[in-house]
Design brief:
Structural class: alpha/beta
Largest sheet: 5 strands, parallel
Strand order of the largest sheet: 3-2-1-7-19
Oligomer: single chain
Radius of gyration: 34 Å
Length: 636
C-alpha cells in the first residue's frame, strides 16, 4: 500500500486535496517564483522544507478511509424506486380479498397471492349458509367503501347475496388468478438468513404439501372459521341428523321434523325464526340469558324504504339508489352516522346511555314475550348491555312463543341415539301438575342443530414461528397470559407479520368490510416504507406491545365488556404468574370505532424495529453491523 508521505510527495507542486482538511490544515501551494539573491534562495528553500515537513506530518494523521469506500456499494437504481416484494395472504374472506385488491391497486411491483383452505372464496359467507344466515348490519353498511352496491335486495343481506357480492368483486377487479383455493397453510417459519417466511401449503385436492417463500405474510383467517361442537355426553351417538350451523348440508330438509337448536348466540337467533314455521316441533336449548335488542336507529332508517313490514327494499327505492349517486351517498352517510351514534356510548358503564339502553331493551323483550310471561325471567339477563355480543331481531322472541316451540334452559344431561335428555324440568315452560324440579325429560328428535359457535381463542390454527424459534401459538396461549398484539395488527417477535382483526380489534365496533379498508391501508403503509427505504424486516418493539396492552386492561373496566359473570368470547382466561382463572378482554378495541380509525390513520414509526439486509454494504462487513434501526431498545 502506498504510504501517506509518498502520496503527498507525488502531489507536489499541486494543490493537496484532502477530504479531512480542517481550517488549520490549509492547502499547500509551492511557489515557483525565482529568488533574486543567494540568501533569498536559501531562505526560500528552507521555507519550502519546513512546509513540506509540516504537510508530511499532517498527512500521517489523515485516516486512510479508502477501505470504508470499498465496503459500501452504491445501489444502481433511480431515486425513489420501490423494490419488489412477495406477499402471501392467508384466507379469501372479506378481509383477505380487500387486502389483495388494495395491493393490486396501490402497490405495483408487489407479487401477492392468497391461499384459501375452502373450495371457494367468501370465508364466513361461504361456510355459513344455514337458513336465516344474514348480516346483522344494514346491507348498505356491510360493503366495501370502494365497491358500492346500490342493488342490495334487503335491509339485512342474506349469506348467499353477500357471497355473490364478493365473487362479483373478485371478477370485476381481476383478482381470481391470484387466489388459490383448496390450499391450506400448515405452517409458516421466519428464515433470518433469507429475511423471508417459509410457508408450507397443502393442496387439499391432491394431498401434496409444497413450500412457498414470502417477504411478508398477512393472516386474514379471522376467528369464525373453526366451528366448535358442544361438549355433551353421547353427542356422536345420535342417529339422526347432527348438524353444525357452520357446516350446513345443502340437501337437509327440516320441514315437518322434530328439531332441536342448541345455542342462542347470533346463529341461533337467526336460524330459530327461519325454520320454526316449517318444523313439526322445535326444542330450543339455551345455557345463558342474552340481550335481544330492537331494531337500531340505522335499521329503522332503512325500513322507511321497505315493502310493508318486511326487510325487502322496494323496487322503486333500489332504482333511485342506482340512478342517483348523490341520493345514495346521502343514504350511506346517514346510516353510518346513526350507527356510530349508538354503538359505543351505551358500552360505557354508569352512564345515562347505558342505563337507558337496559330499560329500552328490557321493555322490548318484555313486550315481545308478553304472551308467555314465564319466559321473561328465563331469557332477560341482568348483566350490562354489551357485556356479550348484542343481537338484534324482530322475530326471534315472538317465534319462541309459538305453539310448536319448547324453550329449555336446564342443562342437557346426555344425548341418546334418538334425542336428548334434559336434566330437570325447565322453569321456562309452563309448570305441569305432576312436574317437579328433579325429573328428567327425553325429547325425541329427527335432527340436532348445533348453533354453538367457534373456537375464538385468536391462536393461529397452524404454527407461526418467528424470531428465535418463537411459536405464536405458544406466545398467545392461555398459559402465557393469552393473546397480546400491537394495535390488533402485529405481534411481538413476528417480523413482517400482519394480522387482520387480531386480538383487541374492532369486532364489535362496526361493519367489517368498512373497517377492513382501514386495516388494509395500514398494512400498505408498512409495505411501502419497506420498499422505499429498503428494509428487509419490521417488527413492533416489545416495549410498545406491553404499553398498548397495559392501556387496554386499564381502560376496559370502564366498559360493559369487562362486566363480571358475562362469559362469552370477548374474553380469554389468563394462566401463569399466579393469575389462573382470571379473565381479560382480548377481543375488542378499547375505544370507539372513530378512535380506532384515527389510531390507525397515522403510523407510529417510532414503535418499530427496522432491519436491512446488507443495506448497501457487502455481507462480509467487518463491523458486525446487523443493519438494525429503531427505538431506544431496538427490541433487544
Amino acid at each position: 500500500m502506498i504510504s501517506n508521505k509518498a502520496r503527498l510527495s507525488r502531489s507536489l507542486p499541486l494543490l493537496l486535496k484532502s477530504q479531512t482538511r480542517t481550517a488549520h490544515h490549509l492547502p499547500l501551494v509551492l511557489s515557483l517564483a525565482k529568488a533574486h539573491s543567494i540568501s533569498q534562495q536559501r531562505c526560500f528553500i528552507q521555507h519550502q522544507a519546513l512546509q513540506a515537513r509540516t504537510a508530511s506530518a499532517a498527512a500521517d494523521k489523515i485516516v486512510d478511509i479508502r477501505p470504508e469506500f470499498e465496503k459500501y456499494k452504491i445501489q444502481e437504481q433511480p431515486l425513489g424506486q420501490l423494490r419488489p416484494l412477495r406477499v402471501i395472504i392467508f384466507g379469501a374472506g372479506v378481509n383477505g380479498l380487500n387486502m389483495l385488491y388494495t395491493l393490486r391497486k396501490e402497490a405495483s411491483g408487489v407479487d401477492c397471492v392468497i391461499f384459501e383452505k375452502n373450495p371457494e372464496c367468501g370465508g364466513t359467507w361461504y361456510e355459513n349458509r344455514y337458513p336465516g344466515c344474514a348480516s346483522d348490519d344494514p346491507s348498505h353498511h356491510y360493503q366495501y367503501t370502494h365497491s358500492l352496491n346500490p342493488s342490495w335486495s334487503s335491509v339485512f343481506a342474506q349469506a348467499g347475496e353477500i357471497k355473490q357480492y364478493l365473487n362479483d368483486f373478485i371478477d370485476k377487479n381481476g383478482l381470481r388468478s391470484s387466489i388459490h383455493c383448496n390450499s391450506s397453510v400448515t405452517s409458516a417459519q421466519w428464515d433470518e438468513e433469507k429475511n423471508k417466511w417459509i410457508i408450507a401449503v397443502k393442496n387439499e385436492a391432491m394431498g401434496i404439501v409444497a413450500e412457498e417463500e414470502a417477504d411478508i405474510i398477512i393472516d386474514a383467517t379471522g376467528i369464525f372459521n373453526d366451528y366448535k361442537w358442544p361438549e355433551l355426553n353421547g353427542l356422536q351417538s345420535f342417529k339422526g341428523h347432527l348438524i353444525h350451523t357452520a357446516n350446513w348440508p345443502s340437501d337437509f330438509d327440516y320441514r315437518g321434523k322434530n328439531v332441536a337448536v342448541l345455542g342462542n348466540g347470533a346463529s341461533g337467533v337467526q336460524i330459530v325464526p327461519a325454520i320454526q314455521p316449517h318444523v313439526k316441533k322445535l326444542v330450543h336449548c339455551i345455557r345463558s340469558k342474552t340481550w335481544i335488542a330492537p331494531p337500531s336507529k340505522a335499521v329503522r332508517y332503512c325500513h322507511q324504504h321497505t315493502i310493508g313490514t318486511t326487510n325487502l327494499f322496494s323496487e322503486e327505492w333500489m332504482k333511485t339508489l342506482a340512478s342517483d349517486p348523490d341520493a345514495y351517498k346521502k343514504f350511506l352517510e346517514e346510516i353510518d352516522n346513526k350507527a356510530r351514534e349508538e354503538r359505543f356510548r351505551t358500552i360505557l358503564t354508569n352512564t345515562t346511555s347505558a342505563q337507558s339502553s337496559i330499560s329500552l331493551i328490557t321493555a322490548y323483550m318484555t313486550s315481545q314475550l308478553s304472551t308467555h310471561p314465564h319466559l321473561i325471567h328465563s331469557l332477560i339477563p341482568t348483566m350490562p348491555v354489551g357485556c356479550r355480543r348484542i343481537t338484534s331481531s324482530t322475530n326471534y322472541l315472538s317465534s319462541l312463543c309459538s305453539s310448536n316451540v319448547v324453550v329449555e334452559t336446564s342443562p342437557i344431561k346426555t344425548i341418546t341415539s334418538t334425542g336428548l335428555v334434559i336434566e330437570s324440568k325447565s322453569d321456562s315452560n309452563p309448570p305441569t301438575q305432576t312436574g317437579t324440579e328433579t325429573e328428567t325429560l327425553h325429547e325425541d328428535l329427527d335432527a340436532i342443530i348445533c348453533a354453538t359457535g367457534f373456537n375464538t381463542s385468536f391462536l393461529p390454527r397452524f404454527p407461526i414461528i418467528g424470531d428465535a424459534g418463537l411459536n405464536l401459538q405458544d406466545a398467545w396461549s392461555e398459559e402465557m397470559g393469552g393473546p397480546r398484539a400491537y394495535m390488533s395488527m402485529m405481534a411481538e417477535g413476528m417480523p413482517n407479520y400482519f394480522r387482520i382483526l387480531g386480538p383487541n380489534g374492532p369486532l364489535a365496533h362496526g361493519a367489517v368490510p368498512r373497517l377492513s379498508t382501514h386495516m388494509c391501508i395500514y398494512v400498505l403503509s408498512h409495505i411501502t416504507k419497506m420498499r422505499l427505504e429498503n428494509y428487509s424486516s419490521i417488527r413492533p418493539l416489545p416495549t410498545v406491545v406491553r404499553d398498548f396492552n397495559e392501556h387496554i386492561q386499564a381502560f376496559m373496566p370502564r366498559t360493559a365488556w369487562a362486566g363480571r359473570g358475562c362469559g362469552g368470547w370477548y374474553r380469554s382466561k389468563m394462566g401463569g404468574n399466579g393469575k389462573e382463572g382470571e379473565e381479560r378482554v382480548t377481543a375488542l378495541h378499547p375505544g370507539s370505532q372513530t378512535h380506532w380509525e384515527m389510531m390507525l390513520e397515522r403510523v407510529r414509526w417510532e414503535d418499530f424495529e427496522y432491519r436491512r439486509a446488507g443495506a448497501g454494504r457487502q455481507e462480509n462487513s467487518d463491523e458486525g453491523d446487523d443493519g438494525s434501526e429503531g427505538g431506544a431498545d431496538n427490541g433487544k
